[in-house]
């Protein structure tokens, strides 16, 4: 479950929702989320806290072979077009419960915004020590054409261009992930991303990203550089 609070110096509304917060599995009972939110654009301060709990279950395959419940934490670098993963906890067998906690903050003032989040996942295992992985990111955005990132009910939406030629946004982001804990060496990763977004409409944009990755796992140090171009349609 999760909870959040935000302040918008304009007419707003308070919204309470019952249901899943974040990514849930079929074994997660869901939760509740509360947001004090405004609509449209303007100055925004958003603070949130989240918690979820999952209880994995084992299963039997088509050969009637039983597989113990397990969990796995891994991540790609800050690049959506690759399947490479430099950090990976591997299968955490006999997983009994997964608890996720998080803190988040968003600040928007005119064409400028800051956004940050910290997450932690703890896996309890039957007969084995608990495992904990954590990650954080911080992001800064500047919309060169003057628009503000729209905020509504606790979420930030795509920019709505105010000009016929669209809207242009510059973004910088830093993230880190630590999947080393005790005898499990899942690795550590730091990503620095510089990007530009060109919004032709609020539903279509071009993106360009440069990502500098610094990852290490089990004595292997990787420092790839990634450049991505893509067009994205959003409904």
Describe the structure.
The chain has 235 residues and is an all-beta fold. The chain has strands at residues 2-7, 12-19, 31-38, 44-54, 59-60, 66-67, 70-71, 74-75, 87-88, 92-93, 95-109, 112-125, 128-143, 151-152, 155-156, 167-181, 184-201, 204-217, 220-222, 225-233. The strands form six sheets. Strands 1, 4, 11, 12, 13, 16, 17, 18, 19 and 20 form a ten-stranded antiparallel β-sheet that branches. The chain has a two-stranded antiparallel sheet with strand order 2-3. The radius of gyration is 20 Å and the shape is elongated.
In short:
This protein is mainly β and 235 residues long.
Lay out the secondary structure.
Blueprint: E1 2-7, E2 12-19, E3 31-38, E4 44-54, E5 59-60, E6 66-67, E7 70-71, E8 74-75, E9 87-88, E10 92-93, E11 95-109, E12 112-125, E13 128-143, E14 151-152, E15 155-156, E16 167-181, E17 184-201, E18 204-217, E19 220-222, E20 225-233
Antiparallel strand pairs: 1-4, 2-3, 4-11, 5-6, 7-10, 8-9, 11-12, 12-13, 13-16, 14-15, 16-17, 17-18, 18-19, 18-20
Which labels suit this protein?
235 residues, mainly beta, ten-stranded antiparallel β-sheet, two-stranded antiparallel ribbon
How many beta strands in the DSSP annotation? Answer: 20
The structural class is mainly beta
Distance between the termini: 26 Å
**Major sheet description:** 10 strands, antiparallel
pLDDT averaged over residues: 83
Q: Tell me, briefly, the overall form.
A: elongated
Order of helices and strands: EEEEEEEEEEEEEEEEEEEE
What amount of the residues lies in strands?
over 45%
Fraction of residues in H or I helices: under 10%
Number of helices: 0
Low-confidence stretches: 1-40
- Rg result: 20 Å
